[in-house]
Amino acid sequence: MNFWYQKSLLTWLLAPLALLFWGITALRRSAYRIGLLKSWKAPLPVVIVGNLSVGGNGKTPFVIWLARRLQQQGLRVGVISRGYSGELKQFPQLVCANSNPVEVGDEPVLIARRSGAKIAISPNRRQSIELLCKAYHIDVILSDDGLQHYALQRDIEVVVVDAQRRFGNGFLLPAGPLRELPTRLQNVDAVICNGETARAEEIQMQLQAEVAVNLLTQEERPLSEFGAQAIVALAAIGNPQRFFTMLQQHKLNVVKQKAFTDHAKFSAEKLASLTNAEQMLFMTEKDAVKCSGFARENWWYVPVDAVLQPEVDGLIEKIMQQVKANGEKGE
């Protein structure tokens, strides 16, 4: 919502509700801390990758990067997710690269395809972890989101922050985009800043795109080869403008931009109407996982890869130490 990124009359009208939201969340967190509400300790180290604000911070690309990096270190990685936007009603459920994103959600399928990690979804994160442990040999669990899910104990917390939008107008929901106040960052293990203006205490991450991939044929072409070709860009992600700006930075001829709500569902008819015979349709990889079953020959997606500063090695070492200590405890 645009008013979340400025202070307006609506902001101040909603401020009492934001204060109420703060009070409820603070009481809830305190109840978990002192044991009035019970939390569950998983048998494996749990790494939470979350955010303070709603949507579009670059959390999913970082989860993919982290899963790959830990696999390179020899760890067997499991990822849990709520499965937002999926129509599935029975949980928990394992997810693989060929799972139907309409049923299980677009982000879990994307993570499975890009990382090769073992994935399970459920609104109850304990159920997901127990299913992964039953089905596979896992060394570490990555939780895609869940920073505020205090019913699950965690060993390491990572917060991803958008470098441009930061914390919006600084207000909690519904007056602003925040789920918790920025002071919460003082208690996490690492802050990943997605963009070029990371602060001294943050680890910079940038999302890089070099190619476009055809949804129908899987042909890869460098973005530089599209030249003056007329392109219609669509995005159904938390921050669509990030995708549109990235295409502009590559000097592509974007003649129209179409932003949808995050996790929006598509049909062949809806997308075909966006372009004419001379235009190409460009979309994010997250959107593409929902469209491969009815793709047209002029539809392309642009995969992005997270690139992080060397300071992230400290986070990797901390995770490795947690896995080692857990292994020694189990011997």
Describe this structure in words.
The chain is an alpha/beta fold. It has two domains: 164 residues, no CATH class; 94 residues, Rossmann fold. 31% of the residues lie in helices and 22% in strands. The strands form two sheets. A nine-stranded mixed beta sheet has the order 3-4-2-5-1-6-7-8-15, with helices on both faces. It has a six-stranded mixed beta sheet with strand order 10-9-14-13-11-12. A hairpin with a 5-residue loop joins β9 and β10. α2 runs parallel beside α4. The longest helix has 26 residues. The radius of gyration is 20 Å and the shape is globular. The model has no long low-confidence stretch (mean pLDDT 94).
List keywords for this structure.
15 strands, alpha/beta, 9-stranded mixed sheet, 22% strand, 6-stranded mixed sheet, 9 helices, single chain, 331 residues, 2 domains, Rossmann fold
Gist?
It is built from nine helices and 15 strands.
Instruction: Please give the alpha-carbon distance between the first and last residues.
Output: 51 Å
Spatial strand order of the main sheet: 3-4-2-5-1-6-7-8-15
Low-confidence stretches: none
The helix content, as a percent range, equals 25-40%
Report Rg: 20 Å
Count of separate DSSP helical elements: 9
Major pleated sheet: 9 strands, mixed
| Number of E strands | 15
Mean pLDDT: 94
- Tell me, briefly, the overall form: globular
| Percentage beta strand | 15-25%
Integer tally of domains: 2
- Which structural class do the helices and strands define? alpha/beta
The H-and-E topology, N to C, reads as HEHEEHHEHEEEEEEEHEHEHEEH
Binding site for ATP: 53-60
GO biological process, one term: lipid A biosynthetic process
Pathway: Glycolipid biosynthesis; lipid IV(A) biosynthesis; lipid IV(A) from (3R)-3-hydroxytetradecanoyl-[acyl-carrier-protein] and UDP-N-acetyl-alpha-D-glucosamine: step 6/6
Catalytic activity: a lipid A disaccharide + ATP = a lipid IVA + ADP + H(+)
